[in-house]
């Protein structure tokens, strides 16, 4: 099964697969579930310091320096093919989180019925602030889970980066 995701994008899918397994679903039934449901989990995130994107070759040193000085963050999304795509830019941490919440409001599907995974790179306080912003927008009855992203993704984004994975109409 291809989750078409990394780190926080795979976690809610694995949670659902675990539920299906514990409900004694067959491997075939789980794979059939995945064929439609994998594309109903979206991941959006931003990197706080662009020098890490520069070091990995994703952007130039000049762009990284200027973006960091100006507090501009690219909002990145994992598309239906599992590829990372920069969608837009936002200014500042709160502005970036608000932009991600705008995408959540546009695409969410029955958000309270599925786990919302907030991933962070050594930024739990900021992640919890983001969780509060999500609850303010969508209501307090949400299953929000906070996780530290894996070291590989964390090395690409750098510290103080935040992302979210949630159930959507489509990626």
Keywords:
171 residues; alpha+beta; 6-stranded mixed sheet; 7 helices; globular
What layout of secondary structure does this protein have?
Elements: H1 11-22, H2 27-37, E1 41-46, H3 51-55, H4 61-70, E2 72-78, E3 84-91, H5 93-107, E4 116-120, H6 124-138, E5 144-148, H7 151-157, E6 162-167
Parallel strand pairs: 4-5
Antiparallel strand pairs: 1-2, 1-6, 2-3, 4-6
Helix pairs in contact: 1-2, 5-6
Structural description of this entry:
This protein is α+β, with helices and mostly antiparallel strands and 171 residues long. Helix content is 44%, strand content 22%. The protein contains seven helices and six strands, in the order ααβααββαβαβαβ. A six-stranded mixed sheet has the order 3-2-1-6-4-5, sandwiched between helices. A hairpin with a 5-residue loop joins β2 (72-78) and β3. The longest helix has 15 residues, at 93-107. The mean pLDDT is 87.
Summarize the structure.
With 171 residues, the chain is of the alpha+beta class. It is 44% helix and 22% strand.
**Helix and strand element order:** HHEHHEEHEHEHE
Summed over residues and divided by their number, the pLDDT gives a mean of 87
Alpha-beta content class: alpha+beta
Shape: globular
Query: How many H/I helical runs?
Result: 7
Percent in helix: 40-55%
Largest sheet: 6 strands, mixed
Measured between the Cα atoms of the first and last residue, the distance is 17 Å
Number of E-type strands: 6
Residue share in β-strands:
15-25%
What spatial order of strands do you see in the largest sheet? Answer: 3-2-1-6-4-5
Question: Roughly how many Å is the radius of gyration?
Answer: 16 Å
Which stretches of 5+ consecutive residues score pLDDT under 50?
A: none
């Amino acid at each position: 099964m291809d989750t078409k995701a990394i780190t926080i994008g795979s976690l809610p899918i694995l949670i659902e697969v675990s539920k299906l397994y514990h409900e004694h679903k067959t491997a075939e039934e789980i794979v059939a579930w995945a064929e439609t449901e994998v594309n109903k989990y979206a991941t959006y995130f931003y990197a706080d310091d662009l020098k890490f994107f520069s070091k990995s070759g994703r952007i130039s040193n000049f762009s990284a320096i200027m973006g960091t000085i100006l507090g501009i963050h690219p909002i990145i999304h994992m598309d239906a093919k599992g590829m990372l795509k920069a969608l837009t830019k936002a200014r500042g941490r709160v502005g970036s989180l608000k932009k991600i919440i705008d995408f959540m409001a546009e695409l969410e599907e029955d958000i309270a019925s599925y786990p919302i995974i907030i991933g962070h790179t050594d930024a739990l306080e900021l992640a919890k602030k983001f969780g509060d912003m999500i609850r303010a927008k969508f209501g307090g009855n949400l299953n929000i889970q906070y996780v530290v992203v894996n070291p590989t993704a964390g090395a690409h984004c750098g510290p103080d980066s935040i992302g979210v994975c949630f159930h959507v109409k489509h990626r």
